[in-house]
Amino acid sequence: MINNKTLEKFRNLPTPFYYYDLDILRSTLDVVKKEAVISGYKVHYAVKANHNPRILKIISSYGFGADCVSGNEIAAAIKSGLILQI
């Protein structure tokens, strides 16, 4: 949840900008990983959805794979440590 103090930090930033709540991301990834293990699924992140290197590194730390459709997406996935399968 974004509090007023956090909002004040944003007030003077030029727009557009992206704000990522990394706690929510990690919480979501925890649930996805747990459920995937229980169900026997392999999770692959669509790199086209967001190729921010910091976000990709966090996602790769959960052992997830990458869904890529371009050379740039493949390069970003490899650089971040996401698992590639052909």
Give the structure's gist in a few sentences.
The chain is mainly α and 86 residues long.
Description of the structure:
- This protein is mainly alpha-helical and 86 residues long.
- Helix content is 50%, strand content 7%.
- The protein has 4 helices and 2 strands.
- It has helices at residues 4-10, 22-39, 53-60, 71-80, and strands spanning 44-46, 65-67.
- A two-stranded parallel sheet has the order 1-2.
- Helix 3 (53-60) links the parallel strand 1 (44-46) and strand 2 (65-67).
- Helix 3 packs across helix 4 (71-80).
- The longest helix has 18 residues, at 22-39.
- 12% of the residues are buried.
Global shape:
flat
| Helical run tally | 4
Distance between the termini: 39 Å
β-sheet strand percentage? 5-15%
Strand order, sheet with most strands: 1-2
Question: Which stretches are poorly predicted, pLDDT < 50 over at least 5 residues?
Answer: none
The sequence of SSEs as H and E is: HHEHEH
- What would the average pLDDT be, to the nearest integer? 92
Helix content: 40-55%
Q: Sheet with the most strands?
A: 2 strands, parallel
Structural class: mainly alpha
Key terms:
flat, mainly alpha, two-stranded parallel sheet, 2 strands
Could you give the topology of this structure?
Blueprint: H1 4-10, H2 22-39, E1 44-46, H3 53-60, E2 65-67, H4 71-80
Parallel strand pairs: 1-2
